[in-house]
Amino acid sequence: MRNTCSKRKIWNRCIFFRIGIKEGMVSMRETIRRKPLVLLALLATLFMTSGCQSTESSPVPAPSTVAEDQTIATVGGTAISRGQLLERLLSSHGTETLRSMMLAEAVKEEAKSLQVEVSSDELEQELRLMKQGYEDEDEFYKAMEEQLGMSREEVLEDARYRLLLEKLSIQGVTVTETEIDEYLREHSEEFQPRTQYQLAQIVVQTEKLAEGLLTRLTEGAEFGDLAREYSIDEFTADEGGELGWIEDQDPFESQAVFQAASEMQVGEVSGPIETDHGYVILRLDGRSEVQTRSEEDNRAEARRLLALGKAVSTKELEHSLLNKYHAEVKEPSLRP
């Protein structure tokens, strides 16, 4: 059975990569807020083809310029020009996009100054965390493209940026071994082995309807067909009820569902399970144990989380870096 990541699961795994410990901190599961990545390419293309060139010298010849009054679309007898599109994009997203570009340069300068880098191993580890809950790498990148509009290269660049900003934020922060010991004791559940379940569900409003659907399933009805026809869960109904792989601590799912899944055999259908969203008929398609980390890795993770808890917020760090490197918006219309 193929693994289908619903929109809800995309939101869970693609946006909340880790569980935050401090508001505004680039820490565990921070929300991707660098959506201008998608706009950068479009704005850059429009600028270049409209005759605007980067102030940085480059050995690569500039592309042929295209007039801003070039028609790029028509509606009835009305033409929409390249210049109109550029003006609308700059008006709507220009300030945010420009700030992201300036931040990227400031972070790059600071990292170079402090000789801070993100290793390939660190980036790969971050990507592994991001890919949890997906059947394979292709499924993950497809989801990122469809739901967030991010290419593979943009996903990698965003992950690298967040890790670099995280490293900069904890420069000079001290964490003692005693603090690590205490953290591991108080948060022992965070370091326990995790179980992943591959689930499919049908969610209905009444227990009576759920019982009726269970009867039809025992009589040979197709689970996916019933899910598409009866399930009220908008995120999974169209996919035949498939939730994909989810961890047993997933905050988006009812603990009653995980309790039932833990007692089921692969291939079994169970229910009705009462939840806040209705009555669930559950099918268990797979179960696996998430690989546990070594004691050394657990201590390193605890150290990192504690350091992030002491560090300045992302907002403060970014603001200080822009000031440090004298960031200035020259175009009045793009100033905040």
UniProtKB/TrEMBL annotation:
Top-level class of the enzyme under EC nomenclature: isomerase
Pfam families, alphabetized: Rotamase (PF00639)
EC number annotated for this UniProt entry: 5.2.1.8
PROSITE patterns cross-referenced by the UniProt entry: PPIC_PPIASE_1, PPIC_PPIASE_2
Known catalytic reactions: [protein]-peptidylproline (omega=180) = [protein]-peptidylproline (omega=0)
Protein name: peptidylprolyl isomerase
Signal among keywords: yes
Domain of life (superkingdom): Bacteria
Organism of this sequence: Cohnella luojiensis
Molecular function as annotated in GO: peptidyl-prolyl cis-trans isomerase activity
Keywords noted in UniProt: Isomerase, Rotamase, Signal
